[in-house]
Structure formats: structure tokens, C-alpha cells
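U., I forgot to send this yesterday:
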Amino acid sequence: MDFKQIKNTNHYIYDNKKDFLLNVGGGVVRHNWRHGDEGEWVFTDDDYVCQILRKNFINKSKDICIRTVCGTFLAKDMDREMLGENGIPENIYTFSGKNVGQKKFNKKNRTSSELMFARYAASGIGTIEAYKLAFPDAKSEDYIKSRSEKLLKTERIDKMISKEIRAKLEEEGVTDNWLIERYKTIADAAESDTAKLRSLDSLARISGLFEIAQSKQEKLEIWAGFSPEQLEEVKKHGKPELIAHAEKTQND
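Result:
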């Protein structure tokens, strides 16, 4: 949900019909915005919901002009879609396919709130509370829960949260070098330290150290079979025997 204030009145765009019903409480939504009347709620071409703020004719040919918080559109222009995903443009009163001002507005406002959400979520206060702090205008508990869950599933928010968590770890001295040095220290000690290894492994995964995007290789490690006696030795010394190692690319 987003909104633009016009003459002291907030005009909203909702993420979907459920979001609209949760906040408005009911009402009819017209499926084809090109046929909508002034004041009606309509679906955008990507199923967001907004209201037609103005509908008029702009020239002698009687071309229908429709204005919403998503911008101003010609009803006859079938090549241009009204997309809620693009957010609210800086200037809703002009025609434009690619609005530089819109991108600037989105980056400045929508992303800043999402970044705050990521920072609060990374702090450990919980995603619901994080959303309330980052988006103080949201009031409906159902909407807040639904929206926070949706944000967590998006790749950009996941990356933001991971980046914030990693930064917090580094503030505490948990860097890549620190982790690698600890692994090496434990390996050199040749003593079983399962609890410490699990803790280090968890920290490594949280920091994203072992996440490699679009890796082209899969490492295959085949470990020897152990008898009960050998397994007992492994528990004592933590030295399983690597008997084969191979690598394959994704094309193999």
C-alpha cells in the first residue's frame, strides 16, 4: 500500500484486492480501468487497486484521459499499461512511458522504508514490529502481517536483511577471516570440538560466507564406510577418511 496526498486528502494504491478490502472494508473494483468512471476503484494491469481521480476529454477527437495515483493515461493507448508495481510517479499529471522522476521517487521513498524494515528486522525485534516502525501509516494488523510476510519473500528484502545482519556480525568482530582462522585453529588442534564447530558453522551461514550465487560446480565428496569401531574413533578424533573427491559442472 502506498498513497499520495492531494489537497490534504490521501489517495491510496493497494497491493491487491485483499489489501483493498482489509483497509477500505468493502466495495466494487472494476476490472478494466480504461472503462472506469471518475471515483470508481479499478484494477491496474498487474492487479493493484487504485481509484480514478479524474476522467475527461483532452482534445477535439474526444480522447479519454484517465488520471490515478499511478499517473495519467490515454484510454485508447493499448500499448501502455497502468502498473501498480511501478509505484506513484513524482508527477501524476503528465503522460510518460518511462518516467525518470518516478524511478527517483521510488528509490527515495519506497526503498528507504524497506531499508528501515530490513534494519529493524535484522535487529531481532520481530518482523511485525519492524514493519510497524518502518511503515507507521499502516494500521490494520492483518495487513501488517500479510505485508511483512510478503516483503520477507522478496529477493531485495532478503538481501537487505542479510547485509544488515552481516554488518552487525562484523561489528562484533565476526568477519570472514575470523571464521576461517577459527576453523583452521580447531582443525590444527586435531581434537573433537563438535559444539564449537556447529556454532562456527551457524555463524558462517548467517554471515553468508558460504553462499555462492550461480555456482557452476558441485563438489562431490565420497567418504569411506566406517565400522562401529571406526565410527567411535571418528567421534574421538574427528578425522573421517576422505577416499574420493570429484567435481562436476552443471552441464555434466
